[in-house]
Design goal:
The structure holds 3 protein chains of 3 kinds. Chain A contains 11 helices and 4 strands, in the order H-H-H-H-E-E-E-H-H-H-H-E-H-H-H. Chain A is mainly alpha-helical. Chain B is an alpha/beta fold. Helices cover about 40% and strands about 25% of the residues of chain B. A 6-stranded mixed sheet of chain B has the order 7-8-9-4-10-11, with helices on both faces. In chain B, strands 1, 2, 3, 5 and 6 form a 5-stranded antiparallel sheet that branches. In chain B, strand 5 and strand 6 form a beta hairpin. Chain B starts with a strand and ends with a helix. Classes of the chains: A mainly alpha, B alpha/beta, C mainly alpha.
Chain lengths: ~300, ~240, ~325
């Protein structure tokens, strides 16, 4: 089967859009992992929360788009703050598995809280009409796709500047190298951790809006797979490397899109399995990931 | 008599359940460099860590400028003016020289940091050259200077130095001690932990000798060195 | 065999007597239940039994060896599907598009009796555990968790994909109802007994050492991979058994049932019930399943979907925060 050039580019573009969403999630998760050593599975739940918040405020109550985005992101940040204070702070420094289990527990809690309070049925998700415009050139896409890519690039750039220039950003990198040294030097580690959680969770909530827009549908369990894939991105891209995590996100976005776009139709269902097979392969060959740093696995 | 800056009252510090330091009472007055001398395992580093807030004494009290700081954690002591250069330096090896210094001056604003940076570079010009180099790639002597710089950029009142000569070549050790003298001249008080008595004697005003977790002798260096046992143990 | 047949008389008293007495008491209780209770309750008790097997075997790997595996449902799926494919009624195979057995396995006119098929399912799950375990068990903590989760997803995806063998996403129905309260609880007793004996023996002590500190264990000369694999494989074997029992009880299986949620459901049982006690997982199983059967009707009646899982999650978080060893733990086990 021969694919036309425009089809190939279309798949690459779609892959980058999906990859952007994964990259943003991986970024947030990698930051938290870097400073706490915690894989925050509850991260995925914030996607759901952000999506539903946007849905209710925008589509049901018809508030303005900008306001709704800001509020959804703020809600995500607030939830991140609450989760850290209630769920994780007490377990810091304990066995890593406890944090893992608790974060899974928190994920299930939030997922079912949404299921209970909203609905077990999926909802149709609509974005503001101006983002829904279709543009047909060499490839076909909607403005929302450009929005996703642009937002992702902006956030990445801001983040990059932040960790190099801002003292809190530098502190984050210091803490992820050694919490002890950071404390010794006088850094208020708690504060940095809290802010990292807030920002990472806010970004996750934003991706909820993006995911809903891309797939046109939201449901109480929409956050699970993206959350797991965010973790897979971190592992494949390289533990301890933020840029690795982002790279991993884009890579998986492309791989998943290609496996739907280029493999025979019967193989579509293997899209998630392929990602995990890749994960296991990477773990066997180069456990530290593509851009990985030193960390014993 | 100069005022007492820091005082401990019978502190006992443990590693797990083993007491490494017992019944230790010492004083540091303003304008002094005080040294804690002793063999390996005597409890010197443990004492210093308790003063820095990394370890907490199980018994006894620590006073800084008349206020009790016994239970205060390390990051809360830095704003009070107590900083530590730990054994092995503990730099952020994946961060650059400048970034390490930035974290040493964490509570500073950007402008205050610029000033502090200038001051540090005047004392350690080599650090300016290595400004954007990753700390882990610096030489041993440069790392020691960075460790010093990071600890004094916040203009502390009390600097704690844990074995500053450890692992360094003799020429570098001489440089390090020149720097210690320089730091003293800027008005910063120092508590020094050393196994290398010869070098320590050159800069200290007062010495405490520790053995197996307890203090045995204290006094001015010349007086301490006159003691028979000390001569045998340390000066060979 | 060393762990069971050690020094003669002492063994009989300390090991076999309690086991046989326990078994006898168990069967007495079951007999009474059988006569007095209604079918629905017996149904629930049987389900509880199946999950006790799954949870106790999982606890050997997760609780006692400290390997956080999220792949248990995958092993149950292997046990379920393979035992079903062996026992499926010959006459129905054509109608349901299931393959006839090849000659080495008995030929086209043969369907396996239950017990051998069940054990074969367990063995196949154990084999899968060896294959998956060798690469994956080198990993630590969250890596192991996600890799094992990945394994489970791969298994269920294959089950969906290999339609000629498994009927894909529609699953297999009209499975012979071989499971009953008696053989389930016989297996419960066997599972608990075997795992109890393992824990008392040298391999068991090695596993506990590994949980406490891999580095220390290694420096004591313990071959990490050997014992990790040991616990992983034993856990998988009994998971396969549980899967086979489940399939022949529910009489219908679909790939999506062996999901992340089933694994996590089973993972929660030893955590809540007590991961350092041989009966902890059983307590967890009884607790969680009873809650489900009591509250699911409420959930459906009042249309508040998700209530049961919400309660599970709350219980889990509460335990993690305040009593991390689980209900049957001593206070000293909590951090």
């Amino acid at each position: 089967m021969v694919f036309s050039a425009s089809y190939i580019f279309q798949q690459i573009f779609n892959g980058i859009v999906l990859g952007s969403i994964y990259a943003l999630l991986a970024l947030g998760m990698a930051v938290i992992y870097g400073i706490l050593g915690l894989i925050n599975f509850a991260h995925g739940a914030l996607i759901t929360v952000g999506a539903f918040c946007f849905y209710f405020l925008f589509s049901v109550y018809h508030w303005s788009f900008i306001l709704v985005i800001i509020l959804s992101v703020a809600l995500g940040g607030l939830m991140g703050f609450v989760l850290e204070a209630i769920g994780y702070r007490k377990l810091r420094g304990g066995p890593g598995v406890s944090l893992l289990i608790t974060s899974l527990g928190i994920y299930i809690f939030i997922e079912n809280a949404v299921k209970l309070l909203v609905s077990p049925q999926p909802y149709a998700f609509s974005m503001p009409p101006f983002l829904d415009k279709i543009i047909s050139t060499f490839i076909t896409f909607r403005l929302i796709d450009l929005f996703i890519i642009a937002t992702t690039i902006t956030i990445m750039i801001c983040f990059g500047i932040f960790v190099k220039r801002n003292k809190v950003g530098i502190a984050m990198r210091g803490i992820s190298e050694s919490v002890e040294t950071a404390r010794m030097v006088g850094i208020n580690v708690n504060q940095v951790i809290i802010w990292s959680f807030i920002v990472a969770s806010a970004i996750a909530a934003l991706t909820g809006f993006m995911w809903g827009s891309k797939y046109g549908q939201i449901s109480y369990d929409m956050g699970f797979m993206p959350g797991v894939i965010a973790f897979v991105s971190i592992v494949i891209g390289g533990i301890g490397s933020i840029s690795g995590a982002v790279l991993g996100g884009f890579l998986i976005g492309l791989i998943q899109t290609f496996s739907i776009g280029f493999l025979p139709p019967g193989w579509t269902m293997y899209r998630d399995a392929i990602v995990f097979a890749l994960l296991i392969i990477v773990l066997l060959i180069k456990p530290t990931g593509i851009m990985g740093r030193k960390e014993s696995i | 008599m100069k005022t007492i800056l820091l005082k401990t009252e019978s502190i006992e510090v443990c590693y797990g359940i083993i007491p490494a330091v017992r019944d230790l009472s010492l004083e540091v007055r303003e304008g002094q460099i005080v040294a804690l001398i002793g063999a390996n395992g005597a409890g010197k580093s443990t004492t210093l860590k308790a003063l820095a807030g990394i370890l907490h004494p199980r018994q006894g009290k620590i006073f800084y400028k008349e206020k009790e700081i016994t239970k205060l954690s390390a990051d809360r002591r830095v704003p009070l003016g107590i900083t530590l250069v730990p054994e092995g330096r503990q730099l952020f090896s994946t961060l650059t020289t400048k970034e390490n210094l930035r974290l040493g001056a964490y509570c500073y604003t950007e402008t205050e940091f610029k000033e502090g940076l200038g001051w540090i570079y005047s004392i350690f010009p080599i650090l300016k050259e290595r400004e954007n180099q990753i700390a882990g790639t610096l030489s041993g002597g440069e790392q020691q200077m960075l460790a010093f710089g990071r600890a004094i950029i916040s203009k502390p009142e009390l600097l704690l130095l844990d074995e500053p000569s450890l692992g360094l070549a003799p020429l570098i050790i001489k440089e390090v001690y020149e720097i210690i003298k320089k730091i003293k001249s800027t008005g910063i008080n120092i508590i020094l932990v050393e196994q290398n008595i010869k070098m320590a004697m050159q800069v200290t005003d007062y010495m405490y000798v520790m053995e197996a977790g307890e203090m045995t002798i204290q006094g001015e260096p010349l007086k301490v060195m006159k003691d028979e046992d000390i001569r045998k143990a340390y000066l060979g | 065999m060393k762990m069971i047949c050690s020094n003669g008389r002492l063994t009989i008293f300390r090991i076999w007597m309690p086991f046989i007495i326990g078994l006898g008491v168990l069967f007495l209780i079951l007999g009474v239940c059988n006569i007095t209770l209604d079918n629905y309750t017996l149904h629930i008790i049987t389900v509880i039994g199946i999950y006790i097997i799954a949870a106790t075997s999982l606890n050997l790997t997760n609780g006692y060896t400290g390997l956080f595996s999220l792949g248990h449902a995958g092993f149950m799926a292997i046990g379920a599907y393979s035992s079903v494919l062996l026992t499926y009624k010959v006459s129905l195979r054509g109608a349901y598009n299931l393959p006839l057995l090849p000659v080495i396995l008995g030929g086209p006119d043969f369907q396996w009796p239950f017990l051998p098929a069940l054990i074969t399912g367990g063995i196949l799950a154990a084999v899968a555990a060896i294959i998956v375990g060798l690469p994956v068990l080198r990993l630590r903590g969250h890596y192991l968790a996600v890799a094992s989760l990945g394994f489970m997803i791969i298994v269920t995806t294959l089950a969906k994909g290999m339609r000629f063998l498994t009927r894909g996403a529609s699953g297999i129905q009209v499975i012979s109802h071989y499971t009953n309260i008696w053989n389930v609880y016989t297996w419960v007793a066997i599972t608990i007994f075997v795992i109890w004996r393992i824990l008392q023996s040298a391999p068991g002590r090695a596993m506990l050492a590994i949980r406490e500190s891999e580095v220390s264990a290694q420096s004591q000369g313990i071959n990490l991979m050997k014992y990790k694999l040991y616990s992983f494989v034993v856990g998988a074997f009994f998971a396969g058994i549980a899967g086979g029992l489940y399939a022949h009880f529910a009489r219908s299986i679909r790939p999506y049932e062996f999901s992340f949620f089933m694994t996590f459901f089973i993972v929660m049982m030893p955590i809540i019930g007590g991961s350092r006690n041989i009966f902890g997982p059983a307590l967890g199983a009884i607790l969680l399943i009873t809650i489900r059967y009591i509250l699911k009707p409420v959930e459906e009646g009042l249309e508040i979907y998700g209530l049961v899982e919400l309660i599970y999650a709350t219980l889990l978080i509460a335990i993690m925060l305040w009593r991390s060893g689980g209900i049957l733990s001593r206070k000293s086990d909590s951090s």
